[in-house]
Amino acid sequence: MLGYLAPYRGQRYHLNDYPGNRGPRTAREKFNHAHSSLRNVIERCFGVLKARFPILKMMPPYSLRKQRDIVIACCAIHNFIRRHAMEDDLFNEYGVDDMIIPGEGPSDPSDTATYANLTVVESQRRRREMDSYRDGIRTGMHLHYRLPL
């Protein structure tokens, strides 16, 4: 399965939309809250990598293959440091729960670029597949948390 698993439009999404004890009220909001939380963790991980390896902030115009290899090498070195360092101050700095990384990621999570080499029909098919997959997750959350759909 290839595609972007988009949050539901028209529902609360950002972690700031859930202040205090005002948690998700529906299964769609629960999905969006989980999506936002996971996205936040991923953005913090990228923040750590960019802080540790400045080349990732402004990638030189290398071939895509070389850029991919640089990112993989940085991740491998980072994982080595994490595995063998007693304390990793940089990781601890970014490890605060619900830390919002300003300027990271698109402002509208649904507003992502589609794959340039896909036909319109293929793009629409993949989007329907991902929407169906998302609905399956939402249904599971509905049953597990007993939230209205």
From TrEMBL:
The organism's place on the tree of life at top rank: Eukaryota
Molecular functions (GO terms): hydrolase activity; metal ion binding; nuclease activity
Cofactors that this protein relies on: a divalent metal cation
Keyword terms, alphabetized: Hydrolase, Metal-binding, Nuclease, Nucleus
GO CC aspect terms: nucleus
A Pfam family that the UniProt record links to this protein: DDE_Tnp_4
Locations listed in the record: Nucleus
Domain DDE Tnp4: from-to ranges: 19-79
Family stated for the protein in its record: Belongs to the HARBI1 family.
Full protein name: DDE Tnp4 domain-containing protein
